[in-house]
Specification:
340 residues; alpha+beta; Signal recognition particle alu RNA binding heterodimer, srp9/1; 6-stranded antiparallel sheet; 7 helices; 20 strands; zinc-finger; nucleus; Si:ch211-244b2.4; metal-binding
Length: 340
């Protein structure tokens, strides 16, 4: 069993998770009829591969595979996700909407490589759920073959270890753009207050980003022009600069139910809430409480970003799995919750 801790931006709460790590090599779908290696060729990415079309590795931009190539359609490397061999900029531009199909049929696959090949992180829907939250900066996974591993979501790298991490994609991810407003991340296109809404849609920003990740996106609001600079990941106005971030819209894995039983290897996850003195208490079934830890876990297994309502002594409460907080719906007082 592996557990994980998530680190959050601004005033958001942290939370604990349980993840398991597979010691089997990933079963990635083959992107070539010749059954090639599914890793990008490092020599091709450096500028020249002596094996040319005979190379068993993918001649594709390694940053495009990760989803963060800063050059976009102007990149001189292949962005088509097609087989090996020499592909140049002109050939990649013939397939502007073609994306690499590197997963085994799932929406996404999170993997680690400590030098012996890429291995799946099982139950990675939990990791993906945290990655999709704009305020989550990182996640720490325990009990992997490499010890505790901290993943930086901004750079998709591992802190302080010779271990690589990657997120494979089926090419159908919807990417969402957020801006920090009043210490909270607000999606472009949604209302930041009951009376204020963004004049620009997240999808418009993503379209511009896909065409050229080195450029910027400008729009007008309240008589001033704002510019989103993709390289700096910030929104710049006349008076101030704000952070922006790009995260995937969370999708449930179609095959998620197959791997869920593997989540509980050796122990059963417990749900706890933080008391007034900072001590953590398990959700237990007792008089006046309508739920317990096991019921919360069942709900969480169905959707790690869902919410759950319950009662304590007649008062209504809500658990938010995405933010990992408990809210008293009458007083609006919140407490941290965690899964250990």
């Amino acid at each position: 069993m592996a557990s994980a801790y998530s680190s959050f931006d601004e005033d958001s709460n942290g939370s604990d998770y349980e993840l398991s790590f597979s010691d089997q090599h990933s079963s990635e779908s083959d992107v070539s009829s010749q059954g090639q290696n599914t890793e990008p060729c490092k020599y091709y990415n450096k500028g020249h591969c002596k094996n040319g079309r005979a190379c068993s590795y993918l001649h594709i931009c390694k940053y495009f595979v990760k989803g963060n190539c800063r050059y976009g359609s102007k990149c001189r490397l292949n962005h088509s996700g097609v087989g090996g061999g020499s592909f140049g900029k002109s050939q990649a531009q013939n397939h502007p909407t073609s994306l690499p199909k590197l997963t085994d049929g799932r929406c996404y696959q999170w993997q680690l490589d400590g030098g012996n090949g890429w291995k799946d992180i099982e139950n990675d829907h939990i990791l993906e759920a945290q990655y999709s939250l704009p305020h989550t900066k990182s996640i720490k996974i325990y009990n992997t073959p490499y010890g505790a591993v901290s993943i930086d979501f901004k750079r998709i790298t591992v802190y302080g270890k010779k271990v690589k991490v990657r997120r494979l994609d089926d090419g159908n991810t919807v990417w969402v753009w957020y801006c920090i407003l009043g210490r909270k991340w607000v999606k472009y296109g949604e209302k930041s207050s009951p009376t204020k809404s963004s004049p620009v849609q997240s999808s418009d920003i993503e379209k511009k980003f896909q065409s050229n990740p080195s450029s910027s996106f400008s729009f007008d609001i309240g008589g001033q022009t704002l510019e989103i600079r993709f390289r700096d990941m910030c929104q710049v106005g006349q008076r101030r600069k704000r952070k922006v971030i790009r995260r995937p819209l969370f999708r449930q894995q179609q095959r998620q139910s197959v791997s869920l039983p593997q989540l509980n290897l050796g122990s059963k996850p417990k749900w706890e809430f933080e008391g007034d003195g900072g001590r953590w208490h398990i959700f237990k079934s007792r008089a006046g409480v309508s739920i317990d830890s096991d019921e919360i876990e069942k709900k969480y297994q169905k959707n790690p970003k869902d919410r759950m309502n319950f009662k304590v002594q007649g008062q209504d409460y809500q658990l938010d799995f995405g933010a990992m907080i408990q809210t008293n719906l009458k007083t609006k007082k919140t407490r941290k919750i965690r899964r250990v």
